[in-house]
């Protein structure tokens, strides 16, 4: 089957506001972006090239390889067009597949109905051609077919990722309210960190920011922590292509690096979760773990670096006085202990942000789930430079 060597439209999706950082990653891997949009990018590449992207991208969610584009007004139109595709050349008729969709069509009241039409069309086609009905369900760990249907425009894709790429595979213990790995990577890429100077993560929680920093600095790609992708369950897959890419990932890891990453938290349990997740990722020896109030987090002096907080956001209305004090203390800590550093606070609460007492030089937009958030950047001048302005 030549599908792995045929060029087609490929959509790489990501969470909203991660697109700029996804674009940087894709370009760094040598690919030409045909189009970019709020939740992803479009390329024109082969299915085989999707293997490399799946293993390397930190900010992506899914990598979708287009099989067919067509017009469809009704569910019956959809069924007819889907059934005309040579699924017996793409899906193992003795295997298993699932269907996902993004549907905005006036004739469809629920995406589940569209999924059912797609599933029926695929099953009927394969049964006619091979005499066997493939199994189907909701699990995304085998072959995954994705439908995009807006008004009358429809695209059918093979989801080459399967399970989302936004989870990087090392975090076996999530901890309390963890930051998604793809988001943490985006936050780090949005900072001024040079991947050599100290990276300080007070209030580390389950350690995602500190671990992602270590992975980025040592060039450890997400593909090192995962052995199952959607492309592996498409007919024509050659496992040697996967293992060849994986060998490249192993060879590019920076093993001897002079790096200081410090993760601290008041909770012993949180620090232990961070330590265990870091060990799974193979970067525990690169991180210093501290159980302490964030004000006591050790910060190397006489240099530059980055300090990143991801505190609780609290309620948008009726802010708790305890969190107000916490945000003020974060500002005081950065002013007094982090001179010469770039400071960052990731928050979804603009009212609490006013309590920090520093003037943000940048307010970088992100979403954490559906919550509108900002990564606030602060230049923490040392004694030789002008003191930062205070927020009004």
TrEMBL record:
One of its GO terms (biological process) is methylation. This is Class I SAM-dependent RNA methyltransferase. It comes from Pedobacter vanadiisoli. It comes from the Bacteria. Keywords: Methyltransferase, Transferase. Gene3D superfamilies: 3.30.2130.30, Vaccinia Virus protein VP39. The keyword Methyltransferase applies. GO terms for molecular function: methyltransferase activity. Residues 62-160 form the THUMP domain. SUPFAM superfamilies: S-adenosyl-L-methionine-dependent methyltransferases (SSF53335).
